[in-house]
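User: I'm putting together a teaching handout on how multi-component assemblies are represented. Below are the sequence lines for each component of a complex, exactly as they appear in our records. Could you produce the 3D structure of the whole assembly as structure tokens, so the students can see both representations side by side? Please keep the chain order the same as the input.
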Amino acid sequence: MSLEAAIPPARRGGDNHSPVARIIIYGLLIIGAAAFLIPVYMVLVTSFKSIDQVGLDTMWQFPTSITFDSFARAFEKLAPNFANSIALVVPATLISAILGSINGYVLSKWKFPGANIIFPLMLFGMFIPYQAILIPMVQFLRTIGLYGGLPGLILVHIVYGIPITTLIFRNYYAEVPTELLEAGQIDGAGFFGLYKHIILPISAPGFVVVVIWQFTQIWNEFLFGVTLTGPSSQPITVALLNLAGSQVVEWNVQMAGAFLTALPTLLVYILLGRYFIRGLLAGSIKG
Amino acid sequence: MRRRVNRDRLTAVLMLSPSLVLVAIFVYGFIGWTGYTSLTDSNALQQLSGQTANYVGLQNYVDLFTGVLYQRFRLDIVNTVFFTTLFIAVCLVVGVGLAILLDQKIKGEGVFRTIFLFPMALSFIVTGVVWKWLFNPTTGLNVLPTYIGLPAGRFRWFISEERWFPFNWQDFPAIIGIIVLGIVVFLALRAWLNKRSQVAALLAAFALLLMAWLTFGDPKQLTGLAQPETHGFNVALIAVVVAAGWQMSGYTMAMYLAGLRGISDELREAARVDGATEFGVYRHIILPLLAPITLSAMIILGHISLKIFDLVYTLGGGDNLYIDMPGINMFFTTFRGQDFARGAAIAIIMLIMVAVVIVPYLVISLRSETSL
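Assistant: Of course. Below is the structure of the complete assembly, with chains in the same order as your input.
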């Protein structure tokens, strides 16, 4: 994984399409983009409507008058869970990123016998269906008294975040020239000195990729959230589902709730999309 | 100096060890624990009354595959096969299509890319909630054609109860056998055409064995099911494919686009000089070069669809068996039915399906990496 953009820019040079071909290409792209944006349109038009405007027959129409009521209602219901998700995501992301950085440094620069076996064994952990560890996890968290609360969920997300954060940092540090570290060693720096003076100062982009990735993953996660937490510590995805499953189906409030749930990760994606894509492609092993 | 380096080596391993211990316990230890649970009759009642679970061997697995009461699990397997196939096909076709379009020196490429990829940043729960509303049969997507003068759609999306291609579960081994036979024959022919006669002979021998088993063996017996049991392609799955495809095809687009940008201009130019049309350049030069990306994408998408849970849970809530999946069944068996042992057995089967896809992929990717 290099420091350049994950997807290189288009090649420069002549355009070898006829005007007709150009029109077809842009036409297809615009149709595709419109299709991808249908759900966004639906969320926006529905969530700005008041409940009496949300009829099945007016589903696709613009609101006749704009109201923020549904956002207020959704926020009122989701705010505690929004706070839970923040309290979950921040420590889980930071700790798994720090662990990943150390692991990546060891696995890329301090190769030891057996590392080639240990690394894939670690990576396998990010692909497993979490159902396969869920039953012991519930019992384990019960035993140590962390079942039902946020600390237990934080622990779980740190542990299962280790493989991907390690992978991203290992690939990132692999591109740091070994000569740089050897020069540092000659100057008398040890394991920690090299990390502090050479590795850490150039780690910022790696941390951005990892933090964005973990933030998005943990924020969006549902299975652990629904099985390992009690009502007062449920993350926002669980609350959104409960909102959607409640007796009275107020679609405007649901859409506003979906919007609020999506907002943090969407903002990160729009502002830092470049790094997001890099994390995405790192997930397919070869950076 | 040397002693210093050795001490640093030790420090390095020590710094890695907390993570190793965590992964060893929480991944492998817990998988082992789940595996053991799946060999017992563990359930909530037993646990609450303080009894220990009894070892029952592979009984839970036998139940799932052959028990009359566990038809739901067989349904899940059939649904997973259809869903995975369709989901991968949709993501690959849409992904490669969008990537090729975007590779035509487009103005505003960044904007299009952002639009195609943003669903990846969302939770499957958000996707599920929004699409559930869009799939409303009387007013959702079905109404859209009327805006351009066409009649409204009549598809009932994820609540459709239609079932296509009905087949008997007892024929499942034979069907899979025929598909595998087709693939083996294809590979054998290709090896033979490429003059790799040893490989071809080996594959042909395997094909003959398989054919003998299909005709003279009794593939039906393999299912262990006494009564015929009808399954089929539940059309409601199309709704799940649409929602999941909307979310994930931007990902394949990104993979393909990164791959396309890695192909040198000289190669394309050379082909054009040789008289290839723009279509020919893609057909004969570029698409073959993208084959490894297709394989990676299939594996990543495949393992996602094998363990899909959130999206189906949001759409169907566990009651809609037409879109049921192993992940959902495991959740309800374990946490609603309190039947830990069978829940664990379903989880282990899911793990095996994912491992079959992922383990070879991990081995191959990391081996090619170290040889560089």
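A couple of points students might notice: Chain B has a mean pLDDT of 89. The longest strand of chain B covers residues 163-168.
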